[in-house]
Structures are given as structure tokens and as C-alpha cells.
């Protein structure tokens, strides 16, 4: 599974979905740890922000993007 973990709420998103179903800005928001649709982009109670390390690890493991680019926590 090529999942990317949301840095805010820990939801997992198929990278294919992020690329093809979200517009580019929203995809970048997920990749940068600014939340996802499941946590209302960081504004819901689910968004604790404690999954940023998992997010970077998931980018490293499951995509061919450069995780350094998305590593700011
Ligand atoms: Zn989220």
C-alpha cells in the first residue's frame, strides 16, 4: 500500500488518491502535514499533530518524493 499518513490525525491516504482526487494545493497540504479531509485540515478534534514523524516516514517509504522536502515538523 502506498499510503501517506496525515501528520495531524494519522489517517492514511493512498498516494494515488492524493495525486488524482485532490487538487495540487490540497495534496501538498497533506504531504506537508497540514491535515487532510478527515480532520478538516487540522481544525477538528482528531487533529493532534502527533503523526508528523509517521508522515515523513510514510513519504520516505511509500512514495518516490524526496522526504527531505517534506521533513519540516
Ligand atoms: Zn488528517
Question: How would you describe this protein?
Answer:
The protein has one domain (3-70). The protein is built from three helices and two strands, in the order E-E-H-H-H. The model has no long low-confidence stretch (mean pLDDT 95). Strands 1-2 form a two-stranded antiparallel ribbon. It has helices at residues 15-21, 24-31, 52-62, and strands at 3-5, 12-14. It is mainly alpha-helical and 73 residues long. A hairpin with a 6-residue loop joins strand 1 (3-5) and strand 2. It starts with a strand and ends in an 11-residue tail after the last helix. Bound molecules: zinc ion. Zinc ion (ZN) is lined by residues 6, 8-9, 11, 35-36, 38-39, 47. Zinc ion binds at residues 6, 8-9, 11, 35-36, 38-39, 47.
List the helices and strands and how they pair.
Layout lengths: L2 E3 L6 E3 H7 L2 H8 L20 H11 L11
Antiparallel strand pairs: 1-2
The chain binds zinc ion.
By DSSP (H or I, 4+ residues per run), the number of helices equals 3
What fraction strand?
A: 5-15%
Radius of gyration: 11 Å
Contiguous uncertain segments of 5+ residues: none
Q: For the residues shown, what is the average pLDDT?
A: 95
Q: What characterizes the major β-sheet?
A: 2 strands, antiparallel
Distinct small molecules bound, one entry per kind = zinc ion
Strand arrangement across the biggest beta sheet: 1-2
Instruction: Quickly count the domains.
Output: 1
Q: Classify the secondary structure makeup into a structural class.
A: mainly alpha
Measured as a percent range, the helix fraction is 25-40%
Q: Count every beta strand, where a strand is a DSSP E run of 2 or more residues.
A: 2
* Distance between the amino and carboxyl termini: 24 Å
Q: Note the overall shape.
A: globular
Order of helices and strands: EEHHH
